[in-house]
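Colleagues,

For the teaching module next term, I've prepared a clean inverse folding example: a structure given as tokens, and then the sequence designed for it. I'd like students to try predicting residues themselves before seeing the answer, so please don't circulate the second half yet.
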């Protein structure tokens, strides 16, 4: 077993991993956790939407996808509550699985506004991307979620919006940002790229 004592964080290191639906960010995080296990490094995944959903259940929301139907004001309250819970966690690495924006009837609602970033105080923000045609294919084959049917041009628009949101999040939080590609059959390279940025390569 390699000696990782020099690269392990002295305190919890919170990493926000974002990406539009269909880029495979959740799979990337799960594979990253598996890799860290091989290094005997403890970590934790906090799915921001799930934490929000737990809070939303208290006001009658029955399905996670219904969160998008809430007003911006209602979503913001749930976001702050979820961020406070996550920021209290204690693990060497905490990975927050979330979105940079949420499409609502009022427009695109920031997933990481000032209050949320201030509460989470991330050490790094990583944006996962993929080819537009692969994103559409993954969305169409994911029967576990109710996804919006978007065209290639709309997907490209969302990818560009994500990059803009990422830059804004870096300016607000002061956290370094990184973009990785999760194209088909390349997930192992993606994991190694992220692990290298965390300083935990074998």
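(Answer key — instructors only)
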């Amino acid at each position: 077993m390699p000696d990782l004592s020099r690269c392990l964080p002295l305190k919890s290191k919170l990493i926000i991993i974002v990406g539009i639906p269909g880029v495979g960010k959740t799979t990337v995080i799960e594979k990253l956790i598996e890799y860290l296990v091989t290094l005997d490094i403890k970590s934790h995944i906090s799915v921001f939407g799930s934490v929000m959903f737990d809070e939303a259940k208290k006001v009658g929301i029955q399905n996670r996808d219904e969160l998008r139907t809430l007003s911006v004001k209602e979503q913001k309250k749930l976001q702050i509550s979820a961020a406070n819970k996550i920021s209290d966690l204690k693990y060497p690495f905490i990975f927050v699985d979330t979105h940079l924006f949420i499409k609502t009837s009022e427009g695109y609602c920031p997933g990481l506004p000032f209050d949320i970033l201030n509460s989470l105080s991330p050490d790094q923000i990583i944006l996962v991307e993929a080819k537009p045609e692969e994103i559409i294919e993954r969305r169409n084959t994911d029967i576990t979620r109710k996804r919006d049917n978007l065209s290639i041009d709309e997907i490209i628009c969302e990818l560009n919006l994500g990059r803009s949101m990422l830059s804004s999040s870096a300016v607000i939080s002061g956290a370094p940002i990184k973009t990785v590609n999760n194209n088909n059959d390349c997930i192992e390279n993606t994991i190694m790229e992220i692990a290298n940025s965390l300083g935990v390569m074998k």
